[in-house]
Amino acid sequence: MHYSVSRVSWEHAAPLLKTVRERVFICEHRIPKRVEFDRKDKQAIHMLVCDDHSQEPVATGRILPNGEIGRIAVVREHRRQQLDRLIFKGLLKAAKELQLKEVFIYSPLDSVEYFTSNKFYPVGSVFMEAGRPIQQLACPVEKIKSKKCYLSH
Q: Given phi > 0 = left and psi -120 to 50 = alpha, else beta, which region is 10?
C-alpha cells in the first residue's frame, strides 16, 4: 500500500480530519463528540495520511503551539501499516520548526510504559478524561525516539 502524508490546517482539511477522528475516537473509543473536537484544532498543525489507491483519509494527528501532541488516530484497517510512525515523525518535525524544547502528550494508562521506555517522563498525577484514566507525559524534543506511537487522544 502507498500513502500520502500531508501537513494541513484545520481550515483546509477539517472534513478529512474529522472523518478519521470520528471513526477512531467517537465510534471505537466512545469519546463524546464535544470532547473530541475543541477550539484547539484551529491553532494546531495537523498531519493527514491518505491511502493513495482509494484517496480516503486513514490517519491523523496534531501538535499545538505549546508542544502538546495528540489526537493521533489510525483507522482500524490500516493499523498494521505503522502510519502512526509517519504521523509522529511529521509532528516531531513541526515541533522542531516551532523551536520547541519539549513536547508532551496525555496518555491512557495502558500506554504509559511504552512512552516512558522512549524517554518520556510523567508530569503531575493521573486524572480522568471521558471516563478514562490519563497521565501527562513529556519529553525533550532532542531525546524523542520516533518508533511506534500508540493511539493518543
A: alpha
Helix, coil or strand: residue 17: helix
Indicate the fold that domain 3-143 takes in CATH. Aminopeptidase (3.40.630)
pLDDT in tens, 12-51: 999 999 999 999 999 998 888 888 999 999 999 999 999 9
What are 126's three cell numbers? 493521573
Residue reference for cell 489510525: 74
C-alpha cell at 34: 464535544
Q: Are 87 and 79 in contact (CB under 8 A)?
A: no
* The one-letter amino acid at 148: K
Cα 92–Cα 98–Cα 103 angle in degrees, nearest 5: 50
Structural domain boundaries in the chain: 3-143
**Integer Cα distance of 59 and 68 in angstroms:** 18
Measure the CA–CA gap between 116 and 10, rounded to whole angstroms. 30
Q: What is the pTM of this model?
A: 0.87
- How many other C-beta atoms lie within 10 A of the C-beta of residue 28? 13
